[in-house]
Design brief:
The structure is a single chain. By secondary structure, the protein is an alpha/beta fold. It has a single domain, classed as Rossmann fold, CATH 3.40.50.2300. 45% of the residues lie in helices and 20% in strands. The chain has six helices and six strands. Strands 2-1-3-4-5-6 form a six-stranded parallel sheet, sandwiched between helices. Helix 3 links the parallel strand 3 and strand 4. The chain is globular and about 35 Å long. 41% of the residues are buried. The mean pLDDT is 91.
Length: 138
């Protein structure tokens, strides 16, 4: 049996945090923190050192793309999985360019998030399949 990966969840929507927490616990993940304010994500990451950060791309205080850049600059080694409602390739390109390892569309969180975690833990990238379709048609 594999070790439970440590996950920090960051989303300004409490309902999303609840849903994602339940999903990850059922996938044998250890949710070590739930953060709903972008301004404290970096501090919590440096304090807790999670293996994976699931990061909302559109948070109120500080958006996920800017947060990812800040995390990289601070030397955070966590894998970053973006969670977003946006299905636009510009968002994907910006997110991955800022240090993301995966991009999961919120409408597919139940089917894609656990696959994304599994992929990033073995140093692979992951995009929700709908994003692959959009990327192929642009």
């Amino acid at each position: 049996m594999r070790k439970k990966p440590s996950i920090l969840l960051a989303d300004d929507n409490t309902a999303i945090l609840d849903v994602v927490s339940r999903l990850l616990r059922s996938h044998q993940c250890n949710v070590i923190a739930r953060v709903n304010d972008g301004a404290i994500v970096v501090k919590e990451c440096l304090r807790l050192r999670p293996e994976v950060i699931v990061l909302d791309i559109s948070m109120d205080t500080l958006n996920g793309i800017d947060l990812a850049r800040e995390l990289v600059l601070c030397g955070c080694s966590s894998k970053i999985i973006f969670l977003s409602v946006h299905e636009d390739s510009d968002f994907v390109n910006a997110a991955m360019g800022a240090g993301g390892s995966a991009y999961v569309v919120k409408s597919r969180v139940a089917t894609d998030l656990c696959a994304a975690i599994d992929a990033v833990l073995i140093d692979k990238r992951y995009l929700s399949p709908t994003m692959l379709y959009h990327a192929g048609t642009s």
